[in-house]
Structure formats: structure tokens, C-alpha cells
Automatic annotation (TrEMBL):
<keyword id="KW-0645">Protease</keyword>
<dbReference type="GO" id="GO:0006508">
    <property type="term" value="P:proteolysis"/>
</dbReference>
<dbReference type="GO" id="GO:0046872">
    <property type="term" value="F:metal ion binding"/>
</dbReference>
<protein>
    <submittedName>
        <fullName>DNA repair protein RadC</fullName>
    </submittedName>
</protein>
<dbReference type="GO" id="GO:0008237">
    <property type="term" value="F:metallopeptidase activity"/>
</dbReference>
<dbReference type="Pfam" id="PF04002">
    <property type="entry name" value="RadC"/>
</dbReference>
<dbReference type="InterPro" id="IPR025657">
    <property type="entry name" value="RadC_JAB"/>
</dbReference>
<comment type="similarity">
    <text>Belongs to the UPF0758 family.</text>
</comment>
<dbReference type="InterPro" id="IPR046778">
    <property type="entry name" value="UPF0758_N"/>
</dbReference>
<dbReference type="InterPro" id="IPR010994">
    <property type="entry name" value="RuvA_2-like"/>
</dbReference>
<dbReference type="InterPro" id="IPR001405">
    <property type="entry name" value="UPF0758"/>
</dbReference>
<feature type="domain" description="MPN">
    <location>
        <begin position="100"/>
        <end position="223"/>
    </location>
</feature>
<dbReference type="InterPro" id="IPR020891">
    <property type="entry name" value="UPF0758_CS"/>
</dbReference>
<dbReference type="InterPro" id="IPR037518">
    <property type="entry name" value="MPN"/>
</dbReference>
<keyword id="KW-0479">Metal-binding</keyword>
<keyword id="KW-0482">Metalloprotease</keyword>
<keyword id="KW-0378">Hydrolase</keyword>
Length: 223
């Protein structure tokens, strides 16, 4: 059945307007983004097929350009649109964090996830904060597996001093999909925390990011 033959109350756009975006399923949200289906396949059916093919919405949004564009019903234009939407979301969250204190905030977890969850390689970054714990800037510092690629505490200290930060939140991703801090994560957190203490800068947390999950080492009392 064509989408225009559905009752208006269950069409994705009309449902969003009536009930809000959070009332929609992943497939319905994706259908609104896609706008059109394929011959013999309406846009909601196409959305379900894409989610089945990629596994879920998170994996679809994290797909490389090649993977994304090879999928039936997608292409370069849709890839560009998606990247633009994701970047706008990240900038909105960064603005939010620049206005409110982020220590212990779910907003910090959401922001770290938006920056790191989709990356294919392990990336170590910092959220540099002012004296009111508002975001000054986000900075990626190291790439590669943390227990193999060096993470230099002095680089973290230099970045914090250059930004005139009073505190910071460490964060990195686990591309394996498991947001469980490793022994190496715990060790490097303490090393960086000790180095920053010498210049009176506080490490508030270390967030471990995976697709669909963020673990706070502070909440787990691992630092």
C-alpha cells in the first residue's frame, strides 16, 4: 500500500506533528529523512529494509560513505544530508554545554557519544571546561588503541593550559561496542589526573563510549 493511502494518524510526518518526534519508531524517523521510497516499496518499508540491513539506526548513521551509498535507496546526496544533520546536532549540544555546568550531566554523555560513538578507530578526546564547568571546547588528541598508541599526559596538560581550562572530562570510544573501562583506561586516567593536579586542573570524569552506551568512570568510582 502506498503511504498516501494510509490513515493520516499513522503517517510518519502527521504522527510527528500530532504526537512529537519521540513518539516515532526508528523506521518512521528514518522514513521522514528519506522522504521517498522505491518502485513497489513505500518509504516506511524502505526504512525497515535499511535498518534490517545495517542492524539498527546507530550502525546506519555510523556507516562509512561507501557503505552508506551502496545501500539501495541511499546515495551521496542522502549521505551529505545525514552528515549535515549530525553535525548540526553536535553543534546544538556543544552550545548547550557552553551555557550550563556539565559535571555529572547526561548532556556530557550525549555529547561525547555524538562525537565518538560512530568512529571506526579508538579516539581519545577531552572536554575542556571553565571554572563554572561549562564547555570551552572539545578536542581530539590521540588516535589508535590506547594500550598500544601512546597517550601523553603532557599533551593533555598543554591543551588544558592553552584553553585556560579549570577542569576537564576525558573521553574515548571503544569501537568493539563494549563501554567497559579497561585496566589501561583506569591507569591512564590516574596518570593524567595526577599530572593535571600539579597545575590545579581537575579531572571530573572519564567517559567510555560505545555505540548505544556510555560509561562514567566517576560514577563507577574507578578514578
Amino acid at each position: 500500500m502506498q503511504l498516501n493511502q494510509w490513515p493520516q494518524s499513522i503517517r510518519p510526518r502527521e504522527k510527528l506533528l500530532a504526537q512529537g518526534a519521540n513518539a516515532l519508531t526508528d523506521a518512521e524517523l528514518l522514513a521522514i529523512f528519506l522522504r521517498t521510497g522505491l518502485p513497489g516499496c513505500n518509504v516506511v518499508q524502505l526504512a525497515h529494509q535499511l535498518l534490517d540491513g545495517f542492524g539498527d539506526l546507530c550502525h546506519l548513521m555510523a556507516a562509512s560513505q561507501q557503505q552508506f551509498c551502496q545501500a539501495k535507496g541511499l546515495g551521496t546526496a542522502k549521505y551529505v544530508q545525514l552528515q549535515a544533520v549530525m553535525e548540526m546536532a553536535r553543534r546544538v549540544m556543544a552550545t548547550e554545554l557552553s551555557r550550563v555546568a556539565v559535571d555529572g550531566s547526561e548532556a556530557a554523555k550525549r555529547y561525547a557519544a555524538s562525537q565518538l560513538a560512530h568512529l571506526p578507530n579508538e579516539t581519545f578526546a577531552v572536554l575542556l571546561l571553565d571554572s563554572q564547568h561549562r564547555l570551552i571546547k572539545y578536542k581530539e588528541l590521540f588516535h589508535g588503541t590506547i594500550n598500544q598508541a601512546s597517550v601523553y599526559p603532557r599533551i593533555v596538560v598543554q591543551e588544558a593550559l592553552a584553553a585556560n581550562a579549570a577542569a576537564l572530562i576525558l573521553c574515548h570510544n571503544h569501537p568493539s561496542g563494549v563501554a567497559e573501562p579497561s585496566n589501561a583506561d583506569i591507569h591512564i586516567t590516574q596518570t593524567i589526573r595526577d599530572a593535571l593536579a600539579l597545575v590545579d586542573i581537575t579531572v571530573l570524569d572519564h567517559l567510555v563510549v560505545a555505540q548505544g552506551a556510555v560509561t562514567s568512570m566517576a560514577e563507577r568510582q574507578l578514578m
